[in-house]
C-alpha cells in the first residue's frame, strides 16, 4: 500500500457517440492525470463487457448492442506500458431492469456520460504483468 494525497477534482461529460474508454483516456492525457479515481453515470448505446476467467486466465468478452443505463461506473488511473491507463468497471441496466456488469472494454459507445475524477499526487502506481493471476497488477 502506498500513501497518496488528493490534489484535484474534475467533473466533465462525454458526448453522444464518443467511444467511452478512448474519450476518457484523452481527457486524462490532456490534464496529465496519472493517478486517481474515476466515477461516472450515464447511458450507452452499446458496450463491451469482460469477465476474467481465472481458470483460463483470459477475459471472456461480450458486446451488448442495446441502449443501457450506466448505473455505476468506477475505475482507477495508473500507468501501464508507459501510458496513462484507466481501469474501468461498470454496472449497466437494461430495459427490463436486469443488469449486466464487468470490466469495460472498447468499443463502448456513449449516449450520455457524466464523470468525476479525483486526482492524486505523487508517483503513480505502475501495472506489471503478474504470472500468478495472469493480470497486470500494481507494483505496490
Ligand atoms: Zn477489470
Overview of this protein structure:
There is one protein chain. With 140 residues, this protein is mainly beta. It is 9% helix and 64% strand. The chain is built from one helix and eight strands. Strands 1, 2, 3, 4, 5, 6, 7 and 8 form an eight-stranded mixed sheet that branches. The longest helix is centred in the N-terminal third of the chain and has 12 residues. The termini are close together. The structure holds zinc ion (ZN). Zinc ion binds next to strand 5. Zinc ion (ZN) binds next to strand 5.
Quick overview:
The chain is mostly beta strands. The protein is 9% helix and 64% strand.
- Low-confidence segments, given as residue ranges, are none
Overall SS class: mainly beta
Mean pLDDT: 97
Number of domains: 1
Bound chemical compounds: zinc ion
- What is the beta-strand fraction? over 45%
CATH class: Alpha Beta
Main beta sheet strand tally, sense and closure = 8 strands, mixed
**CATH superfamily name?**
Hypothetical protein, similar to alpha- acetolactate decarboxylase, domain 2
Number of helices: 1
**Strand segment tally:** 8
Secondary-structure topology with pairs:
Blueprint: E1 6-14, H1 20-31, E2 36-53, E3 58-64, E4 68-80, E5 83-93, E6 99-120, E7 126-130, E8 135-138
Parallel strand pairs: 4-7
Antiparallel strand pairs: 1-6, 2-3, 2-4, 2-6, 4-5, 5-6, 7-8
The protein binds zinc ion (ZN).
Zinc ion binds at residues 87, 89, 103.
Amino acid at each position: 500500500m502506498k500513501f497518496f494525497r488528493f490534489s484535484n477534482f474534475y467533473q466533465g461529460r462525454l458526448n453522444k457517440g464518443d467511444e467511452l474508454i478512448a474519450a476518457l483516456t484523452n481527457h486524462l492525457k490532456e490534464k496529465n492525470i496519472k493517478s486517481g479515481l474515476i466515477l461516472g453515470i450515464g447511458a450507452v448505446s452499446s458496450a463491451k463487457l469482460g469477465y476474467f476467467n481465472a481458470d483460463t486466465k483470459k477475459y471472456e468478452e461480450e458486446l451488448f448492442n442495446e441502449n443501457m443505463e450506466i448505473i455505476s461506473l468506477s475505475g482507477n488511473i495508473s500507468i501501464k506500458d508507459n501510458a496513462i491507463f484507466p481501469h474501468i468497471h461498470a454496472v449497466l441496466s437494461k430495459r427490463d431492469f436486469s443488469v449486466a456488469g464487468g470490466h469495460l472494454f472498447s468499443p463502448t459507445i456513449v449516449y450520455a456520460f457524466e464523470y468525476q475524477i479525483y486526482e492524486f499526487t505523487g508517483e503513480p502506481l505502475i501495472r506489471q504483468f503478474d504470472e500468478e493471476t495472469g493480470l497486470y497488477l500494481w507494483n505496490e
